[in-house]
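fyi for ur records
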Amino acid sequence: MLLAIDCGNTNTVFSIWDGTRFIATWRTATEHQRTADQYYVWLSTLMEFQGIEANITDVIISSTVPRVVFNLRVLSDRYFGTRPYVVGRPDCELPVDVRVDAGTQVGPDRLVNTVAGYDLYGGDLIVVDFGTATTFDVVDTDGAYVGGVIAPGVNLSLEALHQAAAALPHVDISKPQRVVGTNTVACMQSGVFWGYVGLVREICNRIRAERGRDMKIVSTGGLAPLFQQAETLFDTYDDDLTMHGLTVIHKHNTGG
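which gave:
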């Protein structure tokens, strides 16, 4: 079985793939101090609690936080007896091309989303990922990653607003009932929600215009379901996009 690990700036997701489906998925806070032993105790406890007996033979890792990769590699080697594939490393090949400026390092999560998007939905695609940052990844007709856009994440923007303006409270993001708020919290929620709706729509429209073609828009990430409520902003929402991409990359490298 395959253990797929997606390490983001805020959370790290572990999923077990049995070759046809994910039989379990767990999420934990990303902490670079966490050791391989701590990862294993946490993971094995959850597996035992849910009655999951998985013979993990392969591991693949995508990480936007370089400092955690070492301990995840030790976890793979020490407890599962296998050398993990790490997206972005030379020995982990991608099934699609990456066409960006020479010397540019593309985030592994964006490459994985590109692979998954092309595998599931074909080319001419925009993948919008609502993570710590809000990213837009452009997938060409042949599946190649050809660039994108990075904007501040929704929660990051709210936290910055709270910290920079002493009178403004910390609020949770939600879809407001009206655009015009009648209290401070409602005003902030409206500004962030409709502000990001406008940001997403405008960026996607400009990408389409620049590419000179219609493009399907796929959303993913923690806050994607919230913005899925905003009219017809996306063509589809896919919660498992990144994890699916990891299975496709693993299959490409192993021929499985």
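The mean pLDDT is 90. thats all i got for now
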